[in-house]
Amino acid sequence: MSTELPTKASLSQLRTRAKDLRKAVAKSRPDAIARVRAHHPEYRGNSVDPTAFTLRDAQLTIAREHGMTSWSDLTEKVATELIEGRELHRYFGVELNNETWDLMDQIDETSPLADQERLLYGAYAACLHWLEAGNEANHARGEYMIARASLRIGRVSLGLEHAQRCLELVLAHPDQMADWDAPFAREALARALAATGSPGAAEIELERAAELSALVADPGDQEVLQRELAKEPWFGLRK
Asked: Residue 138, class by beta-carbon neighbours within 10 Å (0-12 exposed, 13-18 middle, 19+ buried)?
């Protein structure tokens, strides 16, 4: 019986699995030998010589495990799914992200409703695509953009909700974050707290954002942070 490919399978993942299978057979591991005898056409019902088992044999075994006739058929299937699946999500994530940031300075709560909706829905759509194509860092950045878009058009409670989610992701997955993710998350939360009537808590988050900004290693990233910190609206927090 064939087995389904893992969710979000990748070519590098398949190559690693083939190498691992070859090593396991070389060590005469019973589970690996059983897999080969069950799926490799030349070894069905026959003994397996661990010293003669090649990487190509391992690749063919894995391909047959997944119902493919050859390794090339398997890699083509995965590559196609990458292009049609994650890579397509990545493409739209990048495009929507860039478009939304371009609109951010042009649209606010005085803009026509259709423009406000375009800004907000663009931010949501970008985040959704990154949920499919990226990791927790991409998710956090998507939440950040939704928070900023919401605040721009006066939907302050929504902005607070997404700013809190952004910081939650940054704190929960520090190994996946860049050094500028935390100050950006604090900045968004400071804005949202100020907008929703919590200036004291907002000041604390803004001070923390400034402290973390000073620790960012790349001068270019620091410059981007300072530029964003200077932008309105701050809802009366900065005089």
From this structure: buried
Joined tokens for residue 130: 């990154």
Residue 83: its pLDDT value, please? 61
158-216 pLDDT tens trace: 999 999 999 999 999 999 999 999 999 999 999 999 999 999 999 999 999 999 999 99
Kindly calculate the radius of gyration of the chain based on its CA atoms and give it in whole angstroms: 25
Distance CA 60, CA 71 (A): 5
CB 137 within 8 A of CB 176: yes
Helix 30-39 with 11-26: angle, nearest 10 deg: 110
The string of pLDDT tens digits covering residues 92-111 is 898 899 889 989 988 999 99
Give the Cα separation of 187 and 181 in Å (integer).
Answer: 10
Length of the chain measured in residues:
239
Chain segment 22-78, per-residue pLDDT in tens:
999 999 999 999 999 999 999 987 889 999 999 889 999 999 998 899 998 888 887
Q: Output the CA angle 232-236-239, nearest 5 degrees.
A: 85
* Cα 87 to Cα 79: distance, rounded to the nearest angstrom: 10
Candidates 46, 35, 43; CA nearest to 1 is: 35
| pTM of structure | 0.68
For residue 10, which of 101, 77, 97 has the smallest C-alpha distance? 77
Place of tokens 């991409």: 138
Domains defined along the chain, listed by start: 11-82 (no CATH), 86-229 (1.25.40)
Nearest alpha-carbon partner for 193 in 167, 223, 226, 160: 160
